[in-house]
Design goal:
By secondary structure, the protein is mainly α. The protein has helices at 29-36, 39-45, 50-63, 68-92, 96-103, 106-139, 143-150, 154-160, 165-190, 194-200, 211-224, 227-236, 246-281, 293-304, 308-340, 346-368, 373-399, 402-405, 412-437; strands spanning 2-4, 21-23. The termini are far apart.
Length: 438
Amino acid sequence: MFTLPRTATAPFCPSEVRGSVDIPIDAPFWQKMLRFAGPGLLISVGYMDPGNWATDIQAGAKYGYALLWMVVISSIAGMLLQTLSLRLGLVAQKDLARACRDHYSRPVSLMLWLMAELAIIACDVAEVLGSALALHLLFGLSLISGIIITAFDMLIVLGLKGHGFRQVEAIILGLIVTIAACFTVELILVGPDLVAMSKGLVPNLDTLRDQQGIFLAIGILGATVMPHNLYLHSSIVQTRHIAKDESSKRDALKLSTIDAIVSLSFALLVNAAILTLAASAFHFSGHHEVTEIQDAYHLLDPIVGGTLASVLFGIALLASGQSSTFTGTIAGQIVMEGFLNIKIPCWQRRLITRSIALVPAIFGIMWLGEAGVGKLLIASQVVLSLQLPFAIWPLIKFTSDRKLMGIFANGLKTKVISLSVFVTISMANLWLLISIFS
């Protein structure tokens, strides 16, 4: 028997969900799929937040389609890791943060908590900057004013208090469709070179011979695979309650995996579209040094020959920043509850995270000016990449533990591939640190 949280009165934070709706075991596949669809959407918005825009735009303008393969590989790695995350949540009925608290010593657990919080704050800085920049481009507000306005997005969280988790998923779906529709129209207007795009899908290490290429590649990785998404996914899949028998768990794993892969494939297409747009509009027109989102916004009009492309660009950026607001809030609460066993309302958690994120955003803009937005966004994604190993290693360890996962523990093939991803990311981060401080 499958169950799903009620949508009439349950608050939207998963830890607060109460009650369920029965789904007959003999229900048609499509009905079960619709019931299980949703968590993947919340995860996918973290894969297309404003931080992705900065790295993808700079990579496309500088190298054309040459780093498109990095977007694809990062997305595939993300699909693998998110699948492990949902398996932990559905089989062990524990989120990653709670599993860490139960397994590791107090000092180690606190260190992992701090790492996770740093990742959430870095992501929120990107959301603040992205939303503020969108308001600046669309309505002419100063960046500081836009940043201050983003402080009030917790009113959205308050407005959703008492609504079901499914309503949040529906809002996220609407924002994702908005982003996708905007980029679809923009790509039609720009007209990318499909043959050159296909060549960009083939790994080309020539782009990684200079420091900027590697820096952008690591930024793409950090912008795509976000550590807090691993904590988030392992929790929100539990809003789909399942029976404890093996057959029900297998069905739940299959349906949730489909949900995750389809949603993240959609995010892959959006990220590829951003890089493709930058390559088509800027790289091949000689604008190789476009590094700022606002530069891309202003250059689209004369290159494409109309105002529609830039307006759609701004709308998509605003939708991207706001959609990430929901997942950042929920992830923050999950991390705090799991590691520290502290439960606070979602709006309070939002207030804490956003208040901390406003400080580097405001001071960064005051120090670097408007031209510093791109640098701050890419820096935030590099910070995320540096935190990834601290979430990936426990995830692999727990999902490979037969005492915890039983027959659903990782097989040899999954272990090898997962550990390869872990080693690759760790080595890339090590190289980055050496290059920065050498």
